[in-house]
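Example 3.2
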Amino acid sequence: MTKRVRIGAAAAASVCLVCGVLVFAQNKKQEEWERKVKESEVPPPALAALKKLAAGATITEFAEEFEHGHKFYEGSWKGPDGHVDGLVTEAGDIVEIEESIAPEKVPSAVRAEFQKLAGKDARIGIERKTFFVYEGHFKKDGKGHEVILTPDGRPYHEEEGDEDGDEEEEEEDK
């Protein structure tokens, strides 16, 4: 009997573990997603902001995105150097602009580094990203503070620190 109980317990534990992993994986998928939408599905403030960013260019594609617990809307159009994407909040606040850019319009140091990383004969497509953050300064408990937030109210932090660990120092200073 004890052997059967142990086997049953092991089987039950295995089933629980598999179910837990599946639930975790499903929740991870739900954290971020993107889907194409029609212009009519974009909230009016977001649509107005995208049209203003496009500055008269025809928006050829719309998408709804869910990231970091917030919903965003993206519009795509043709810019002077190629493809442009604008990302805004539901309320129409600009989050990011991503645009194809001709290599000769990129600073020479950036071109040289891309070439070094990609290899001598590599063909490199370059996009310029402009993203918006808001920096606030205030005193609290007698100390000065500086806080940087994204348009959806999340604290902004660099995605990658440098080798010296300066980012961690900056985060600690805040």
